[in-house]
Amino acid sequence: MSAMLRWMRQKKLFEYCVEHNLHLQTYIDDKLYAREENQKLIDYCALNRTPYYIEPDFIKMVNQPTPKMLIIDDPSYLDELIPVFRDLLGDEMHITKSKPHFLEFMHKEGTKGHALTFLANHFGCALEQTIAIGDSWNDHEMLECAGLGVAMGNAIEPLKEIADYVTFSNNEDGVKHVIEKFVLNKGL
Description:
There is one protein chain. By secondary structure, the protein is an alpha/beta fold. It is 42% helix and 21% strand. It has helices spanning 3-19, 39-48, 59-62, 75-89, 112-122, 140-145, 157-162, 174-183, and strands at 23-28, 31-34, 52-54, 69-72, 93-99, 102-107, 131-134, 148-151, 165-166. The strands form two sheets. Strands 3-2-1-4-6-5 form a six-stranded mixed sheet, sandwiched between helices. It has a three-stranded parallel sheet with strand order 7-8-9. A hairpin with a 2-residue loop joins strand 5 (93-99) and strand 6. It is globular and about 55 Å long. It starts with a helix and ends in a 5-residue tail after the last helix.
């Protein structure tokens, strides 16, 4: 996506958020920015242990390259907004949820599936030799392209439906179980 096209899409997203009073934040040079401090931002930063910066003239942030923009709101409302944003922004932006309250926007190649493909190519292995483990909406492309797509026991149901295997939850050493069963071949 050209810089001009990226900027136009980010600007459309920003304008929609201002018009509909949505909380929008973005990352620039590994720093988190929002246009105002509110409880959504405070809770997000407490969860992720991320410091934040307030930029009231947020269009300055929109004009810069960013790996991700994020809206925080009620999960069902965000679900309603996904088709609206797909129509507004086109297919050059990847739209996904990382948590029920977090709607993320990034370059269409900014998926975990693209990252897994890149890593497999970098290390010279076929995708059929890879294992991907996830628990949320933003993991589905990765599970679909991996040789073995694994959903955690605590994963969202749609991810479990596309997974090749469902392991234990993260509190029950689900990743350890997958490594022992499929990498170390302990057959559990």
